[in-house]
Amino acid sequence: MDDALLSIDALRLALPSGARLLDGVSLRLERGRILGVVGESGSGKSLTGLSVLGLQPRGRLEGKLAFEGQDLLGFGPGDWRRFRGRRAAIIFQDPMTAFLPVRRIGAQIAEQIRLHSLCSRREAETRVIALLSRMGVPAPREAARRFPHELSGGLRQRAMIAMALSCDPDLVIADEPTTALDVTVQAQILMLLREIGARRAGVMLITHDMGVVAQICTDIAVLYAGVVVESGPAEAVLRTPWHPYTRALLRAIPPMDGARPDRLPTIEGTPPAPEARPPGCVFAPRCPERRAACAFRPALRRHEDRSVACVLYP
Amino acid sequence: MPPPVTPPPTIPLLQAHSLSKSFALGRRRVWGEKRFLTAVDDVSLSLGAGDSLALVGESGCGKSTLGRLLMGFDAPDRGRVMFEGQDLARLRAGEKRRLRARVQMVFQDSGSSFNPRRSIGATLAEPYRIHGRAWSRAAIEALLEQVGLSASLYERHPVALSGGQRQRLNIARALALSPRLVVADEPVSALDVSVQAQIVNLLRRLQSELGLASVFISHDLAVVRQIADRMAVMYLGSLVEEGETLATLARPLHPYTRALVEAVPRPGRALVAPLEGDVPDAVSPPGGCRFHTRCPVARPLCAQERPKLETMGQERKVACHFPLV
Fold first, then answer.
1. What are the pLDDT digits (tens) for A259-269?
2. Which residues of chain A make contact with B61, given a CB cutoff of 8 A?
3. Model confidence, pTM
4. Is B265 on the interface with A (CB under 8 A)?
5. Are A233 and A303 in contact (CB under 8 A)?
6. Domains in chain A, start-ordered, CATH in brackets?
7. What is the ipTM for the molecules in this complex?
8. Cα distance between residue A201 and residue A164, in whole Å
């Protein structure tokens, strides 16, 4: 029996066209931890997050997707309605499109609270204001009466997080929550996410920014072309990456300290399209360590607290 | 084709003298007061041949507007831009066209800057056609190879390219007429890390191979560090600090620059308590030092008097009453 908050094993998602968008995603998230799911665009990191809420595009979803041991793949519409919002909530990158533009922020959050718990309109309103103020929104009473477009990007993202947390979910999925924000505002939002993680909920942070992972995540899962190629405690993986892709990705980031290199190390080529993924290791065509054994897809193997899918680590 | 005029070495390639630009926003009420947003407020800059300068700041600080003023896309309300000693505002149409060949721009969104129905070869031939210059297929294929694209793409269309390849094509088009200055507005921020590294390397190689002067507009300090020798930090339309990039990032003089540097998430460093609040509304910016409302080291003087950009130490400038030392 798996006691993880969220446990995903060999998850695959294929579209009717045959494109395999997810091709072997395995990860675990415990309560009180922040898992960074990193990868480049098209790697399937957002789809993984959406699949946990049953919001993935129509297609064939296979593998194991379990929340506190409960199988999510067998969920019906009613199960999902009870699950989303109360047990698990999602924060999107762009809160402008996630809020309804013609309703006030406070009313939208209150609606969600009243949908999931029995309380009066007034009680819901009080809870909204308390939530906004906990999210560090100045003058929360006035902010609740504003329309989404009247708030700055940073405040809108805080309101979005307030809505996600309104029903005290056990799992919070944050999909690039700071990508649209300036760095000084990003730092404020990251602080908030870290507090959520500290309160016994599990946070799945989907991002392309290794710096963000290094600063607030306890664990990391690296995706490439729909496959988790490496995972483990964030500090260990970032300090000594094992998979050649993780290594190359970390080296390609321009450094903020030390000497300025003449050239940044790069990864030649581009990731394969979902309909043209190699049958063997997905990274092999671009891998500097490629060998004959890479013609077969390596399994994600566990080595103590870390996992890697590469023939170099049998 | 007239030979390129080489200015005497004493005149910088590009000089901006106290540039200001504001935009009318319309009224709140029918009889209300007309409101203005000052996007660029008294900015002076100078760039020598082959120099690289980054304009850094958060969204809405005026860095893109400043870039457009330097390109001559918009006319400043006050101040002037001199390119090779000539005032952009006083150029006649023909001269302005010749200037266009020497100053080029690279935009962030490479997806929307090409005509999808035109082949890559025709896309790159366009600058030559517009400027009445001779071109050959061989020259365009050489241009493609200079930016790391295969010459075999000549007959293909931009849709066939990936994001990174499209940005290479964007750069190739900017280089077609051998410009002396390239202004690049967020050239890599839409790209994935591994592709971003390729484009950053390309831009640096072109700077040194072609002796190209460049202005990079960017919010990403790690990219700026890799790509620009000097940087200028903007806050609410004004320059708050300017200096050599590595020195500025290692030891910022302005509290705002320090906050920007510290907010960059990176391994092995704890999350530092960030600045409070958001950037104030540029329509009604705070008096005194514009940064004093968020500044962790502000004193009473900062709310009263606006600091000027003053030289400090070696080749560094800062606009702060109490610079960090």
1. 999 999 998 88
2. none
3. 0.87
4. yes
5. no
6. 6-87+170-308 (3.40.50.300), 99-168 (no CATH)
7. 0.83
8. 12
